[in-house]
Amino acid sequence: MNEGQGKVIQFKPKRKGVVAGGILLLVCIFFLILLTGFKIDEIEVTGNKHYSKEQIKDFVLENGYIDNTVLLMLKNKIKPVENIPFVAKLEVEYITAHKISITVYEKAMAGCVEYMNEYVYFDQDGYVLEISPVKLEDSPCIEGMSFEVMELYEKLPIDDEKRFRIILKMTQLIQKYELPIESVRFTSDNEIVLGCEDIRIELGDGSNLEEQLVDLGQILEGLSGKKGTLDMKDFDTASGTASFKLDKDVKETKNKQESEQDTSEKTEGEDLQQSSAVNGQEGE
């Protein structure tokens, strides 16, 4: 019996060693395939607007980048890329063994105001989303207001509720109709003036914003390249008309050019008459 037990004791370690070795071999093969068979060759970026595709890729690369589709996806699930200005979330998804997809979820900026030499961006409900020294081209800047304090994720500290509602409605309509508005200013008379390149757009007290802005995009297309003031205070949606006045310096330049053109045409006419007379005398 003692000899039999001795034989069993001799065979057990050998069997365990084979199993352990097999498991270790399988683990090594698995990690070898994982590390060599899932190298990232292509990164697809969608949903980006404020940042280019290359900038989004750089954000991922700078945040402990792993050149492996599976590991990068898992890493992003556990510890996603955060603290990117104007971006709420980056979602990394596995597409193929060599391709991943990055979906960008940007913060819904409605507009911005200047504060302490920085730009404070707010959403359509008036909550502060971002404070940055960077000015986004597609976010209209509200001018003519001052603030004592500004806090992230809090509502804009505007005491005048009427003006606050007008600002929110106006920025929502600008986004809705995709208008290329660069600035929004309130005058001392509480009238609204929009800025679009070299065109000043006067809207009045803001009581008729929906009707004024619905046709503004089409009107601005017709004024492309011009410089002046578009008066829409009494805009008539039935006729779709608004008055436009060229800036004084533009008008003077235009009149000067027309005068020079008339003088040039007159001189050319006189030269032509003199040339004809000379030719006539030579013929005689």
Provide an overview of this structure.
This protein is α/β, with parallel strands linked by helices and 284 residues long. 42% of the residues lie in helices and 25% in strands. The strands form two sheets. It has a nine-stranded mixed sheet with strand order 6-5-4-7-8-9-10-11-12. Strands 1-3-2 form a three-stranded mixed sheet. A hairpin with a 2-residue loop joins strand 4 (111-115) and strand 5 (118-122).
Q: How many DSSP helices? A: 7
CATH topology of the largest domain: Rossmann fold
Q: Label the overall shape.
A: elongated
Low-confidence stretches: 272-284
Radius of gyration: 35 Å
The helix-and-strand class reads alpha/beta
The top-level CATH class of the largest domain is Alpha Beta
User: What CATH architecture label of the largest domain applies?
Assistant: 3-Layer(aba) Sandwich
Strand content: 25-35%
Largest sheet properties: 9 strands, mixed
The tally of structural domains comes to 3
Order of strands in the sheet with the most strands?
6-5-4-7-8-9-10-11-12
